[in-house]
What does this fold into?
Amino acid sequence: MKHLSRLLALLLAVALLPLTFMAAASAEEPVTITIWGSDRENMPFRNGLMTIEILKEKLGINIEIISAPTENLAEKFGLLMASGDYPTIVQYKAKDLLLYKDAWTPLNELVNETDTPNLWKVYSDPEIRRKVSDADGVMRFIGQRTAITAGKLYFWRQDWLDKLGLETPKTTEDLYNVFKAIKEGDPNGNGEADEIPFSVRTNGSNNRGNVIPFIHNWGIAETFFAEDGQVKFGATDPRMKEALTWLNRCYADGLLDQEYLTRDKTAWYSAWANDQVFMSYDWSAYIDNVANQCKESEGINIVGAVPPEGPTGISETRDQLQPITVDEDWNAGIFVGASEEQKKAALKLLDYVYSEEGMILMNFGVEGEHFNIVDGDYKYSDLIMNNPDGLSPQDALRSFGIQSMLTLLQDARYERAFVSDEVNRIRDIYEQEGHIGDAFPTLAFTNDEQSVINEKYTEIETYMNEMVDKFIMGVEPLDKFDEYVAQIENMGLADVLAAYQAAYDRYMK
Amino acid sequence: MHRSRGALLWRRIWAAKYLYLMFLPVLLYYVIFRYAPMLGLSIAFKDYNAFLGFDKSPWVGFKYFNQFFNSIYLWRLVRNTLLINLYDLVFNFPAAIILALMLNEVQNRRFKKVTQTITYLPYFVSSVVIASMVVQFLSPSSGIVNNLIAAAGGERQYFMTQPGAFRTIYTLMNLWKSIGWNSIIFLAAISGINGELYEACMVDGGGYLRRMWHITLPGIAGTIVVLLIMRLGHVMDAGYETIMLLQNNANLETSDVIGTYVYRRGLKGGEYSYATAVGMFQSVIGFAMVIFANWLSRRYSETSLW
Amino acid sequence: MEMTKRRSGGIRVAPSRRVFQVFNVILLLLISFAMLYPVVYVTAASFSEETAILRGDVVFIPVKAHVRAYQKVFNYPLLWKSYGNTLIYTFVGTAINLVLTVFGAWSLSRKKMVGRRFFTLMCTFTMFFNGGMIPTFLVIKELKLLNTIWAIVLPGAVSTYNMILMRTFFLQIPQSLVEAAELDGCRDFGVLFRIVLPLSLASLMTIGMFYAVAHWNSYFTAVLYLSKPELYPLQIILRQVVLLNEIVENATSTEEVMAEGIKYATIVVAMLPMLCIYPFVQRYFVKGVMVGSVKE
It folds into this structure.
């Protein structure tokens, strides 16, 4: 009897033992969250990244990355949403996340001062908050807060201005005259008028993305923009006709690159390297990149330039970065079907990334390893600047996960570290002296509004694209402009504008 | 009567049992990997939302078909698609046959091998590179074509912006890229011709042209017809990726095909329903063409698909 | 064409024939030159200095030659693994392709296969109608094939186009040979293996080559169904190398690039094995040996 009861007790103890282990384990076992995001070799987003490991440690969360190849991100995203297998966090463009808005946890309540103080610092501002909300005002994701706004700018060869004794042009008229002088003055000294005063590389789905910003100086944007609370369409605005007239004049006189529609990056670099180009418009770092390609050109001096003033004195560009980069792949939505613990962990992660500590980790790395503070200034270490594996500073940073995905709070000091002084100088001028025009916000549409836009806008856009280039190149005379406006209106522009207006009004509330 | 017919049928099936066995894995493949996904074609009639899934996405009937047919550009898109394919059929298809015939006449085996290899190599150079080479060659300022024109006293042309030039440029680019590769199938077919037929023809005093016309061409006629029928089935398709490499706003009038237009609209974000609806339209037309071509071919020749 | 060789050794060669042959060769040489140019340019550029490429200085031969672009490609961590992956996918894939295609083509070519018209139609139908990217993906997912070699080789296991081509070749085999074999006691599989296949070497090699090349170049299937980098085929890795050297579009900071040279180096790397394929395959482009001597 005694043996039996002792045996029973022993058996009971043995049976209960694993339970105690399990209880102990689950008490310690960290929550696992998965994150889906864009991964490419020179901006990796995968398991094992230094920043991810540190985040895991610091937050006590197990993070697993699901990498999606950057090149086919759109297809992979569609497949992801159809697959029925959803990660905790998805990082992608706002517009696409909004297509499936019900998949993302509403954050209006969850982002507050007590639980997520760092996120609250940014998103308590309704201006910022509406950028990450859907058509009903429900906050659906966390975006990337950018540090700089001057992304794209004009630049030219100062040495040619000097050589021909030309004054810095201020207005569009001045610029036209300078172009003419360049074309006739043969600054590259080869005896041929092969100079291309203004040349850009093809950009944007309509290829003229780097030519069209000139029209911003007439106070309009190419497609949708807001003026006095009203949403307008730039391509049919009377000011567009004026702007196009100027562009057409430049093209007709051989001052605007005759081949701008087909000049890809290689051909554009080629023109620069062959001492043919005077002025361009592009992302700021291209000032340095172009200078790099033209190392062999004697005396070349590329400086940034402010936009030429239009007839009403406007000097601005409207296609700059927004305070929250909703058009990029960084917006993070938390899946609505994740468990409560996972959602909590996800918010904890996002809040940390927005904190001072997290921002330093994601922008600069670990002090002593990737950067040092010298005289109060952040300076990247040798590991970054003179990377032993031969990586460029930017690639080196990103190989650790710094300045890669999840860097949701960007710091301006990072941006300044990698470009030449000239780029920093001109960027400051753009930002501080009012050359950044209003960018039209990415709006959240209701299903009906989206439907109207989908149906009518592709046609309008196709027609507009064809005609604008024809006007610029002179294939279509500008006195046909009114017919072209009428045609676009026929295609249902009013309906599309109404949809945009409704969404815009909601956005501004 | 009925019973004996059924019995006869069953006997014939039993006689072919090994053929059915042979065909079985193929059948399985088609059912699982081709027909099962076809159920997804229903998204053409729905407002498909990938997150909601097939069942929960609302039914909209022919909405997207109507949108496509009501488009101002419908006629232009269809016309451009058809013409690009027609150019390809009329020029590139026979060109591959002619190249195969020419290569066949080469005596020296080594020269033949080397030449054949050279002609199919461009197939492996990516379209992106070939397209940018084409743009480069045609550049009004520095391209070789215009340099030659200028040297001959002509005026330089910006070909890439001329709608009238697009089809020719695109067709020639495809010719350059695929003629060698396309000729391989014809060379294989030629090698399948019974050698005795050539002997007989020569004994009869037939020269090389006679042989080509009376032996070679008829010998590969079956292959030609079959390829032609299948090619016709794609007369409403035109791969948008390659066209987009040469397309720009100035030549949209002739370069905008169904595929590129749908791609642009799809860029607005996940419009799978619209894309599927238009794709279905293309497939229906293509399939109808094949049925028609097959019927024609069955009437007037010995070859047909079924 | 042994016939012509024998002929020119012996009897007369018509002068018009000579002229034609010379003309033919010249034309072929011109065509070869035109075809060769893109390949020559790509190869030269892959060894050239970046600025030289951009300036347009590269025409036929490398300018300021170096092998750094190739070094970058070959040093890429997953490159060799992906080369191996592609080899495996190509072998396994092509083997499956050929078996299924031959089975399909042979059975559909036999008159005695009841319902073959129906089956052919069923297959042809799929050349025009397919479910699309998402439905096919869901099928693969349900079958639990994601991230396996089967997701690469099974969805494209049979190309209807190739199968119909092969059937056309099979139909050209004289019925008398088939009947003779059947009289000898062969059944359907036996006829296929003993008689038909030896006679169809040219078509087998050609169709086999078509499939193999498709596998070699394939890219999108892997993108859809694979998410583990160790499984990636060559094309994906090569594209990554090219992307690696392109400036991230919104360049707000400078980077050193070798983009052009690398772009061309990757094409050469992918193209090299293709140089060997045709010469190898062409050996089989001879008339199949006629078994016995059955008079038509």
Q: What stands out?
A: Chain B has a mean pLDDT of 89. Chain B touches chain C through 87 residues (CB under 8 Å). The two ends of chain B are 29 Å apart (CA to CA). DSSP finds 15 helices and no strands in chain B.
